[in-house]
Design goal:
Number of helices: 3
Number of strands: 3
CATH superfamily: High potential iron-sulphur protein
Radius of gyration: 12 Å
Protein name: High-potential iron sulfur protein 2
Number of domains: 1
Oligomer: single chain
GO biological process, one term: aerobic electron transport chain
Structural class: alpha+beta
Function: Specific class of high-redox-potential 4Fe-4S ferredoxins. Functions in anaerobic electron transport in most purple and in some other photosynthetic bacteria and in at least one genus (Paracoccus) of halophilic, denitrifying bacteria.
Largest sheet: 3 strands, mixed
Pfam family, one: HIPIP
Strand order of the largest sheet: 1-3-2
Keywords: 4Fe-4S, Electron transport, Iron, Iron-sulfur, Metal-binding, Signal, Transport
Shape: globular
Distance between the termini: 27 Å
C-alpha cells in the first residue's frame, strides 16, 4: 500500500470535511461544472472519468449525490462539481445497502 504524504492527507481530510458538512440539497443546487481530471483535488485523489477498478465506481460510492441513472452527478468530495457516474477516485467507499 502506498503511503500518503502529509500534503495529500490534508487535502483529502479538508475536502472530505467540507464535502460532508454540505447538505445534499446544497450539493445538487450548486454542482454545475463537470470535474476535470486535471483539477488539483481530482489529481490528488487520482480521479478518473472511467473506473478501472472492478466493482468500484462513483455510482456505487457513498459520497455520490443526485438521482441514480444520471451520467454526471454531484459528489460530496468535490463540492460544486459533477463527477462521472462511471468514474472513480481514491476516496471511494462502498455505498451501504
Amino acid at each position: 500500500m502506498k503511503s500518503v504524504n502529509r500534503r495529500d492527507f490534508l487535502k483529502l481530510s479538508g475536502t472530505t470535511l467540507i464535502g460532508m458538512t454540505l447538505g445534499g440539497v446544497a450539493l445538487r443546487a450548486n454542482a454545475q461544472e463537470q470535474l476535470s481530471e486535471d483539477d488539483a483535488t481530482a489529481k490528488a485523489l487520482k480521479y478518473v472519468h472511467k473506473s478501472t477498478t472492478e466493482g468500484s465506481s462513483c455510482s456505487n460510492c457513498m459520497y455520490i449525490q443526485g438521482e441514480a441513472g444520471q451520467e454526471w452527478r454531484p459528489c460530496a468530495i468535490f463540492p460544486g462539481k459533477l463527477v462521472n457516474s462511471k468514474g472513480w477516485c481514491s476516496a471511494w467507499v462502498k455505498k451501504p445497502g
